Amino acid sequence: MNDKDFYFLRSEKDGEDLVGKIATVSKLSIPLGWTIGILQYINLYNAKTYSQMTKICFRSALNTFFVGVAYAASTYYVARYRHEDDEFNHIIGGLGASIATGIVCKSGQAGVAAAVIFPALGYFHKKKLTTNDQVRIKHYLMSTKNRFNCSFAKNKNLTGNWTNVPTS
């Protein structure tokens, strides 16, 4: 094995390789899992010692870390397979994270609920709304005011001919 084969995971720019994605996910998911563990310790368990609390918090942090790693690995390998960086990669990453959620929670219902929520979160994580997108959404909502019968559309500054909605 030569050096090029050994370091193939670090070939992209910082944060876009597998190790960078996992490091980023761990910075976010481990504190979240520890916080969830503290809430479980306070509300659900009757733990008496700090070692029991540490065990509960560590288990929860490890579970959220596994879900984050599943998301990072799924997005990385789908992007590597498709050779594209678009929203579809993050949707597949959300599905991978939902499978990990079902396994970690030992519940098919939690996995199905996560399969509904996580792909949408992954899509919107990649597709950050710019100001132009927000303006287009506002104009679309205003153009359909008769269909929705919005009360805020009765303002005289917002009424008018919205058939020529600007696209940029």
Write up what this structure looks like.
It is a single chain. The protein is an all-alpha fold and 168 residues long. It folds into two domains: 9-128, no CATH class; 130-168, no CATH class. The chain is built from seven helices and no strands. Helix 2 runs antiparallel to helix 3 (50-82) and helix 3 runs antiparallel to helix 4. The N and C termini lie far apart (51 Å). Residues 1-7 and 148-159 have low confidence and may be disordered.
Shape: globular
First-last Cα distance: 51 Å
Q: From the alpha-carbon coordinates, what is the Rg to the nearest angstrom? A: 22 Å
Task: Report the count of strand segments.
Answer: 0
* Main beta sheet strand tally, sense and closure: none
Poorly predicted runs are 1-7, 148-159
Tell me the helix content: over 70%
Provide the β-strand percentage band.
under 5%
Number of domains: 2
Q: What average pLDDT do the residues reach?
A: 74
Number of helices: 7
Query: Could you say which structural class the secondary elements and strand pairing correspond to?
Result: mainly alpha
Order of helices and strands: HHHHHHH
InterPro entries: NDUFA11
Family: Belongs to the complex I NDUFA11 subunit family.
Membrane topology: Multi-pass membrane protein
Organism: Pediculus humanus subsp. corporis (Body louse)
Main traits of this protein?
about 170 residues; mainly alpha; 2 domains; 7 helices; about 70% helix; disordered N terminus; membrane; NDUFA11; ubiquinone; NADH dehydrogenase [ubiquinone] 1 alpha subcomplex subunit 11; transmembrane helix
